[in-house]
Structure formats: structure tokens, C-alpha cells
Amino acid sequence: MDRDQPIGVFDSGVGGLSVLRALRAELPHEDFVYFSDAGHAPYGERGDAFVTERSLAIVVDLLAQHRIKGLVIACNTATAAAVHRVRETATDLPVVGVEPALKPAAALTKTGHVAVLATRGTLASSKFKALHDALRGRAEFVLQPCDGLAAAIEADDQARIRALVRRYTTEVCCFGTAPGEIDTLVLGCTHYPFASEYFREVLGPEIQLVETGEPVARQTRRLLEAQGLINPAGAGAVHWETTGEPQALRAAASRWLGL
């Protein structure tokens, strides 16, 4: 691998753009290939076997077509279902997955109560269970599956996004900074940061919102540095691939990344 090769980033749709945004801020001279598997979304409501099959197919494509030097699985569901298989398949490739930021949230909370919003697939995974079990005693976690929210964000349906944010935050109960209340919210799907304005609208400024983009970007830098693969003088270009509608991906990249 050469340092001027691009980094591959993939997600079931546009949610991974929240991770790409953090990666571009951390690694401004790196080139990226972003693969949106929107034609097979949403992953969060699919089985592990399907998600693993798609993940491996995407990795093979990114290696063959773009000769990527590193991979970021910018999807919580795909990470939970398939990161181990991806690492077994592409043994020389630095691979970074994402997971709901329970550990940072446990460190941030003052009340000791944290809500985790994620897809049903993520919350049901053995990888998430192991993470959750490892943090028992560090905080009290309330887990809330959010059926339909990633799909609403994917479709840019603002009215539905707002309605689902209100529904799921109401179901969690009770947010606040008093003892026994939830003062920290983990956005456990890479789509959810794009609904942050609605979470703020409902919860106010005192509730801490925790996402995964920045830690993932820092870990990506560490892995590339360890292998001497940092590009110090690249153009910072992004190449786009999708199994869905190209115009939808272009619109999302324009709206959320200014690209």
C-alpha cells in the first residue's frame, strides 16, 4: 500500500457522512472513497447474514476498484455484524469500525444515567452486549431502539425525523440534570447526528449529545501513522459510489458536508 491511495468509507446510506465529516477534519490531505449502499438500506432492520454479505462485497469492490489503503466501516450495524469477518478477509488492511459511544458517555454523565438511541440491529448484537456488559456499574444505560429514524434521515423527511425524535425521546424518559435523570444521550447510529437540531429542540442545551465521528477519525489517524500511510500533501478529494440514487447522495453531501 502507498500513502497516496485513498481511504474507503462505507455505510448503508448517508449516515456515514457524519463520520466522513470528522475524518476530513482530522485528515484534510487524505483522499476518500465514500460508498453508500442505499440500494440495500436500511441495515439496522436486516439480519446479520445479509449485512455481512453486503459488507464483504463492498470491501472487495473498494480494494479492487480503488486500491484503498484503509477502511472505515461508518455504520454501527455493519460494524457489529461484520467487522470481524472484514478483518479476517482483508488481513493487511487497517480497518476501523464504529460503535455507540457508551464509554465516553459514562465518563461525561454527572447523574450516572445515560440513554442510548440506536437501531434494533445494533442493540441486539453480541458486540453491543459485550460493550454494555463491560460498562456495568459505570453508569445506568437506558436502551431505545429507533425503528424508522435512519430511514427518515436517509429520505430527508424532516417532518418525520422531528416526529420520531420526539417519540423516542419521550419513550426514554426522563431527561434532565437532577439526580436520577438522564443527562447524556448517545446517538448510536451514524445517521442520528444529522437530527441533532431536533434532539436539541426537544431536550434543550443541558443534555449532552455524544456521537462517534471524532473518536473514529482519531483512531484512523493512529492506524495509518503506525503503518507510515499518512498522506501529507494530498488534495482531500472524495470519490462517490452508491447502489442507490446518485442525486440523493449528492444532495446529502451538499447539505451536510458542503460538498
UniProtKB/TrEMBL annotation:
Gene: murI
Keywords: Cell shape, Cell wall biogenesis/degradation, Isomerase, Peptidoglycan synthesis
Residue positions binding substrate: D11, S12, Y43, G44, N76, T77, T190, H191
PANTHER family: GLUTAMATE RACEMASE
GO molecular function: glutamate racemase activity
Pfam family, one: Asp_Glu_race
EC identifiers of the protein: 5.1.1.3
InterPro entries per the UniProt record, alphabetical: Asp/Glu/hydantoin_racemase, Asp/Glu_race, Asp/Glu_racemase_AS_1, Glu_race
Pathway: Cell wall biogenesis; peptidoglycan biosynthesis
Family per similarity comment: Belongs to the aspartate/glutamate racemases family.
Gene3D superfamilies: 3.40.50.1860
Catalytic reaction annotation: L-glutamate = D-glutamate
Stated name of the protein: Glutamate racemase
NCBIfam families cross-referenced by the UniProt entry: glut_race
Protein source organism: Ramlibacter terrae
Alphabetized HAMAP family for the sequence: Glu_racemase (MF_00258)
Function: Provides the (R)-glutamate required for cell wall biosynthesis.
List of catalytic residues: C75, C189
